[in-house]
TrEMBL record:
Sequence ranges assigned to domain Enoyl reductase (ER) in this UniProt record: 9-360
The protein's name: NAD(P)-dependent alcohol dehydrogenase
Coiled-coil boundaries: none
The family this protein is said to belong to: Belongs to the zinc-containing alcohol dehydrogenase family.
SMART domains, alphabetized: PKS_ER (SM00829)
Organism: Streptomyces albipurpureus
Entry keyword set: Metal-binding, Oxidoreductase, Zinc
Pfam families: ADH_N, ADH_zinc_N
Length: 364
């Protein structure tokens, strides 16, 4: 099967939309999905900084959504014509997967970031027969079609605009899941969200839906305006005595803080802004050592890393869709669509902060 896909051949090159070949259809437990739209996530773009850790050339993209066109084996639980949102890969068999923590799968890095399932390597090539890295996050959805494990696909109502739902599988899932799952934020509780990108704004929407008092911290006035529209108190990251301002706005200190920036300064500011027993969650990967200031974790304060919002995608994605339909999680306001052919423009706009969440339309 031949179809178009955006191939990244090296960390220095631009994406090139070219013909690729799928040399075999879905095996048992797999589905073939005609991609309607795929979000562009910072993790896709971070491949350029990964110093060869993620294999190239590859077709990236891991916020895909579309329509099932072929199933492999009798036990996928899905059928042709089903609309599905795709999420991250996991083995389904390790202790964490069986304990409803698939984001902490023993094989998460290998399956999603560093080569995927080795049996898929020869099944996906470029037009000349050159191997492309096996499925990125189980998807490789910057393409017209994606071959994915069926358990990574969550059925969606066919009346919904499936081309917009892909970002619910990673970026929006991560921010909202941190609020709903990792923190279990309740009405009247307080949370500071540092960084008003896609993940941070999803956290703001989820916190507002939870009835929390939310402070959004960023240096971009346009992003702060969006956060305010979604129910947060906006606060410029360059404010003098940022921890003091957050404590003032949260009646003595935030019970929760979510950092999406990986900035050591902001992380320490967030810790100082917590009330006793407060919890700081980190979702961005730290690229340097994190020096903590003396006393940062005194009085029951704690810090943890949160992967994929501690989510079971099959539970959280339908919840987010329901909130969206009720007008309480307006993620579609953050999306700008681009034809797949314009993927490099989408990347430039994302890097420049001109768009919160690009979504690529292979058929648009």
């Amino acid at each position: 099967m031949r179809f178009g896909a955006a191939v990244l051949r090296s960390s220095e090159s631009r994406f090139a939309v070219e013909e690729v070949i799928l040399n075999a259809g879905p095996a048992d437990g797999e589905i073939l999905v005609k991609i309607a739209g795929c979000g562009m996530c910072r993790t896709d773009l971070a491949v350029r900084r990964s110093a060869g850790r993620s294999p190239l050339p590859a077709v990236l993209g891991h916020e895909g959504a579309g329509v099932v066109v072929e199933t492999g084996g009798p036990h996928t639980g899905l059928g042709n014509g089903d609309h599905v949102v795709l999420s991250f890969d996991s083995c389904g068999q390790c202790r964490n997967c069986m304990g409803a923590a698939p984001a902490y799968c023993d094989s998460f890095a290998a399956l999603n970031l560093f080569g995927g399932r080795k049996e898929n390597a020869a099944r996906f090539t470029d037009a000349a027969g050159g191997e492309l890295a096996p499925r990125w996050f189980g998807q490789s959805a910057f393409a017209e079609y994606a071959l994915v494990p069926a358990r990574n696909a969550i059925r969606a109502d066919p009346s919904l605009p499936i081309e917009l739902l892909g970002p619910l599988g990673c970026g929006f899932l991560t921010g909202a899941g941190a609020v709903f799952n990792s923190f279990a934020v309740g009405p009247g509780e307080t949370i500071a969200v540092l960084g008003a990108g896609a993940v941070g704004l999803a956290a703001v929407m989820a916190a507002t839906a939870s009835g929390a008092v939310t402070v959004a911290v960023d240096r971009n006035p346009e992003r702060l305006a969006i956060a305010e529209r979604f129910g947060a108190i906006p606060l410029d990251a360059s404010s003098t005595d940022l921890p003091g301002r957050i404590r003032q706005l949260t009646d003595g200190g935030a019970q929760y803080a979510l950092d999406t920036t990986a900035s050591a300064r902001l992380i320490n500011d967030a810790l100082r802004a917590l009330r006793p027993t407060g919890h700081l969650g980190l979702v961005a990967r730290l690229r340097n050592a994190l020096p903590l200031e003396p006393g940062a974790l005194d009085r029951g304060r704690r810090i943890s890393h949160i992967c994929e919002g501690d989510a079971v995608p099959g539970l959280l994605i339908p919840r987010l869709i329901g909130l969206w339909q009720a007008g309480r999680f307006p993620f579609d306001e953050l999306i700008r669509t681009y034809p797949l052919a314009d993927i490099n423009e989408a990347e430039r706009d994302c890097d420049a902060g001109r768009v919160v969440k690009p979504v690529l339309l292979p058929w648009g």
